[in-house]
Amino acid sequence: MQSRPALVVIVGTGGTIAGTSAQPERHVGYQAGVLGVDQLVAAVPALQGQALEAQTLARLDSCDMDHATWQALREAVARQLARPEVAGVVVTHGTDTLEETAYFLHRTLAAPKPVVLTAAMRPASAPSADGPQNLLDAVALARYPGARGVVAMLGGQVLGAVDLRKLHGYRVEAFSAGDAGPLALMEDGVLRSFRPWPAAPLHAADPSAGPVSAWPVVEIVTSHAGARAATLDALVAAGAAGLVIAGTGNGSVHHTLLAAAARAQGAGVRVVRASRCLQGGVVGTPAGALPSYGPLTPAQARVELMLDLLAAAPPA
Ligand code: SIN
Question: What is the pTM of this model?
Answer without folding.
Answer: 0.97
